[in-house]
Task: structure prediction
Amino acid sequence: MITVSSPHLDQKDKKLIRDYSHFVISKFVKESLLDKVQIKIEIVTANDLDHYADVDDLKMLEAWCQYLGVFKEKKHFRIVLNAKNISKVIDPLKKYKKILIGLGHELVHVKQYLNGEMFDYVSGGVKYKGSYFDHSYQNSQEAYYDAPWEIEAYGRELGLYKMFITKMKGAEKK
Result:
């Protein structure tokens, strides 16, 4: 189940975000796994957040994904996106371009967790596709961008958006 919450979007726009999320995640994850997942997507500004750490993260990052663990037999994820990336144009696919690209990136990380490709350690380290990476990848931009899970997410984000645009334009013609 995917939910979208934001004081900055109306129901139609939230549906677009949900539709995109379903489009992306269903490309990578078996349908049987999706029944065991809860993804909460929040599109917010710093003023909408209660925790100082989240406010700081939103100021530094455009988006992030958290794996929150298993509750009631479902894996829970939280994706936070910066509402300041909503543009002023009227066309919804262009208005939410930066949001959708960032969301695609974060959903690749959800895929990595769900398919058992990635595991976080309390120490800050990460196991990705069988290899362990200590927390030092968090200490520099170079190490962050060289992390293989980030290379995959950055490598897919724009293409996912373009595929969705093509799908939506094809649906409009029918």
